[in-house]
Design brief:
189 residues, alpha/beta, Nucleotidyltransferase, domain 5, 5-stranded mixed β-sheet, 5 helices
């Protein structure tokens, strides 16, 4: 039944979750991620040291400013989504879909994104502070949207790109995310 819901409403569904990141000074930063299911595209992210229901609600408003709100918002049962969050989401016309307690598998795409961020970016750097984390994630999401392929998208990226034929030129390597990753493209000589 859950797989059927995800399949039938994938076009209309965004998922929301938090990622916890420690810094070099032992501060704990919280990253809010909002992911569109259809193309696994990160719609919005933000970083804070002190998340509240009001802050989280404002992030949803910032993610969908001009009547672009999706019909469904998939989230866990964390206490951070308090009364002010639920009211704001309801007034935007978004129906909240709550996963079962202790069932992260019911929110698979955003959980997979969090794992990818950890494995492909944060496990290889020491986060200095909030601004540094924002810069790292901005670079990673640029790479993630334009170059990181997915089997579920037929080896395409969230933002599709045209194939380049050999007539365009030789293949060159371009570093991404401060050299943690690279993409390859053809450039005219």
């Amino acid at each position: 039944m859950w797989k059927t819901f995800l399949k039938n409403h994938g076009q209309d569904l965004v998922a929301l979750d938090f990622l916890v990141v420690p810094t070099v000074t032992y501060k704990v930063l919280f990253v809010l991620l909002i992911l569109a299911h259809h193309r696994r595209r990160v719609v919005h992210f933000n970083v804070t040291e002190h998340p509240t229901a009001e802050w989280t609600a404002q992030q949803v408003v910032d993610a969908f400013p001009w009547d672009e709100a999706p019909p469904y918002l998939l989230r866990d049962r964390d206490r951070i989504y308090g009364t002010s969050f639920r009211q704001r989401v309801r007034h935007m016309g978004i129906e909240e879909v709550l996963i079962a307690p202790r069932s992260p598998w019911q929110n698979p795409y955003v959980e997979r994104l969090i794992g990818s961020i950890r494995r492909e970016c944060l496990d290889h750097v020491i986060v200095l502070h909030e601004c540094h984390l924002r810069r790292l994630l901005t670079g990673y999401f640029q790479y993630y949207h334009h170059w990181r392929t997915r089997r579920a998208l037929d080896m395409d990226c969230p933002l599709p790109r045209p194939a380049q034929g050999p007539e365009v030129g030789p293949i060159i390597e371009i570093p991404e995310v401060g050299g943690l990753h690279h993409h390859y493209e053809r450039r005219a000589a």
